[in-house]
């Protein structure tokens, strides 16, 4: 599978998805929480794929809401919600906002509405471990 490259609106956060399947085979979801609805998010994840996220110096804002377990990664420059990231045992898992990252391979698709309100913390963690994409997050440091 060829890699899919995207970025936030201003380009300060770049993403590179190495999909294990074609984009048409990857899920596309529309979480119904207030945060995702307000950002118009359409997310994808796949445990067999790999995701690389690189943020320019000072470009990454982390926002935790609800149960405060996951970082919503938002560009400090343009305000685009790029991904939700879960640091876990020395590695990371993420669900990528395909529309926020401008991944053209997902344009024209209708995301499946999903609701996770009734999940316990343990159920949320199990779902994320089973479905989210292994992710490397690099925050570039300002040069001296």
From TrEMBL:
Gene3D superfamilies reported in the protein's UniProt record: 2.170.150.70
PANTHER family, A to Z: CENP-V_GFA DOMAIN-CONTAINING PROTEIN, CENTROMERE PROTEIN V
Keywords assigned by UniProt, alphabetized: Metal-binding, Zinc
Name of one Pfam family that matches: GFA
Protein family according to the UniProt entry: Belongs to the Gfa family.
Ranges for domain CENP-V/GFA: 4-117
Protein name as catalogued: GFA family protein
Biological classification of the source: Bacteria, Pseudomonadati, Pseudomonadota, Alphaproteobacteria, Caulobacterales
């Amino acid at each position: 599978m060829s890699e899919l490259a995207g970025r936030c609106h201003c380009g300060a956060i770049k993403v590179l998805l190495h999909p294990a399947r074609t984009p048409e085979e990857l899920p596309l979801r529309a979480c119904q929480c207030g945060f995702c609805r307000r950002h118009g998010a359409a997310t994808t994840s796949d445990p067999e794929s790999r995701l690389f996220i690189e943020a320019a110096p000072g470009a990454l804002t982390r926002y935790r809401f609800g149960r405060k377990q996951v970082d919503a990664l938002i560009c400090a420059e343009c305000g685009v919600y790029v991904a939700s990231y879960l640091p876990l045992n020395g590695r990371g898992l993420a669900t990528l906002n395909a529309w926020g990252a401008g991944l053209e391979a997902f344009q024209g698709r209708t995301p499946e509405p999903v609701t996770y309100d009734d999940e316990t913390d343990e159920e949320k963690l199990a779902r994320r471990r089973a479905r989210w994409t292994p992710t490397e997050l690099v925050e570039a440091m300002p040069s001296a």
